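Table 4 source record.
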Amino acid sequence: MNRISVLDSLLISKIAAGEVVQGVYSVVKELVENSLDSGADQISVLLVGGGLQSIVVKDNGSGIYPPDLSLAVERFASSKVQNLDSLLHLQTYGFRGEALSSIAAVSRFKIVSNCQQPSADYLIVEGGKIIENGQTARVQGTTVEVHDLFYNVPARRKFLKTPFGEKLRAKKVFDNLALINLSVGFRWEEPHKVILSLDKNQTLNKRVSRILGAKTAEKLINFDVQHPHLRLWGVLGSPEIASRRPFNLITVNQRPVQDKAVTTAVRKGFGKLLQDRYPVFILNIELPPEQVDVNVHPSKQEIKFSAPSHIFSSIVKTVDSTLKQQVSEVIRLPPQFISKSSYAESKSHLLSDQKKWRDNEFDFKIQSSPKSSSISTHELSIPEAGSLWQVHHSYIVSETKDGILIIDQHAAAERILYENILYNVEHVSQALLFPVAVTLSEEEWEIVNQTKADKLYKLGFRVKIFSKSIMVEAVPMGLENTSSDEIEVLIKDLLKTDDDQNFYIRSVSMMACKGSVKAGEKLTLSEMEKLLGSLFLCRQPHICPHGRPTLITITLDEIARRIGRK
């Protein structure tokens, strides 16, 4: 075994660089954050070859004092913390004094800076060694050039992504910092081309529109909520734009961070609106600096809260209340479709009955089978005749004040039936004119005998149990027009459903799908009016039980753009 010895300073720098510099995105992050800490209000980033050849970051910040320039590339040299107290009350991105030295250790590095001087000073560093310094012309601010990243650490360079992959990841870091620092102007450039230019002092929604697109920006819900010693603000994407590959940004005191617990809290606030998809959101968390520890990892993206339970519960409440308050505004309900008083009354009943469902307090009553049934259970204010059209017997189209509304008739019917069964305002089961006999296999018979008979009862089914079979005499309200074959398939599917805390939700979702209007089914104008009216009385009208949108809006502006008028 070798003797213990103190590591060489250059070797130490390269080891440290491995923690700080993971790729092009790390360099962009550290350099742009340095520019922001310098007070710059104009920052530009230029990548050549996806950043593998060159990364150039320019700003108009305060600059670096000439005597300090050589210190800037030394390890643990920083202007941002002076003592332990300043670390505990940190208000800058940087503080470890490792970024520039780590980057300079694994690249061909040049820095030019002017701190209100007649001329600028510069340094050229290769592999951590200063090889040239002097003066040059530059206005106030700093320019950092990073060439041939990891040229002297080939083992690390071969693990970099393709130029395109490195550029995409770096652009995401750039976008996040631009979304946080609204008072700063940003430019993203490639050789001989400006890809994105953002004016300073933009609103969050305007900046989101430029970065994520106008369609996404149109579906955002703004929020700004003050809790004890905590402010939560930002935007939530409406559930209809949730996806399996989401965009989200979490900041703590304007520092972008990654925190699975915070993401989980946001998802919990969305409740069942998301199903297996992920929300679009930007969440800014502001709290006293001493209540958060940012000195967890060299990347400075991991943090620890001193009171995590308070923060997480506040996030859940904020998201939940924001969605409840804004749901009708987000989906732009045509006002002629619904009476405000009937909506408020029905929502009150639904919220009350949701609690009863969770507490298993439903007392189902059986009604005699009616001669006819209606999708809606509430008095509706319906649109004028002729304002609805059915397209391909699958979609309903309606004109709105600022565009058109397109409704998926099956998804909408699923949502209506799902809530009618789940919340069951009338607490009734519907008796069948002709009971349905369901023959059971040995396995199904065992399941019925164990627990599922009681659970079928709580779902609204009324059954009589015989040897190796059951007789279905009543079904949950809304399924009375389901065929006997579909009822048999549904019962068997319910018996196969995993017996856990989500049994009821999955079961109701399954029943809603089986009993709903299908795509390809022709509807009369009256049926379309009732369907839409009932949909807009739902607690969560814009998404079906499986997580798909029930409707989409297309604005006049979007139509004009597609047609070429704008």
